[in-house]
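[09:14] KT: can someone run the structure on this one? pasting the chain below
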Amino acid sequence: MNGIRTILAVLCIAFASTALAVQPDEILDDPVLESRARDISAGLRCLVCRNESIDESNADLARDMRLLVRERLVEGDSDDAVIAFIVERYGEYVLLRPTTDGANIILWVAAPVLFLIALSSALVYLRRRDKAPEPEKAGLSVEEKRRLQELLKE
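[09:31] RB: done, structure tokens below
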């Protein structure tokens, strides 16, 4: 009996989390439009919460953005047009998955390029270190030997 209760509790929590932060008064009557709104909202960043989608956020700004998405969909905008409108209004930072064109290509390419530069630098360093001659082991000078003998006699 305890096992069934545990399973039911886990299922209730799992299904409760799918509602996320969307309030009942925000939900559109048309299930197709609501589904599109949820898909779009899942890809937009809450500017208050950082790295949390507007669909998950309880912030007032996230609510305003969710309402704006739904408003644009009701007006007949395509998904791309809605996203473009939001990006134009709030900036490209609002995208959870940044684009790979324009100046952003530098961000996408920089990490692998820097990794390859570091890897090749490490390989060059290791090869040069292996080929370097062994440093000569310098013995004691005559003065140092004499001083050592004096210390050992004491």
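[09:33] KT: thanks! The mean pLDDT is 84.
[09:34] RB: yep, looked fine to me
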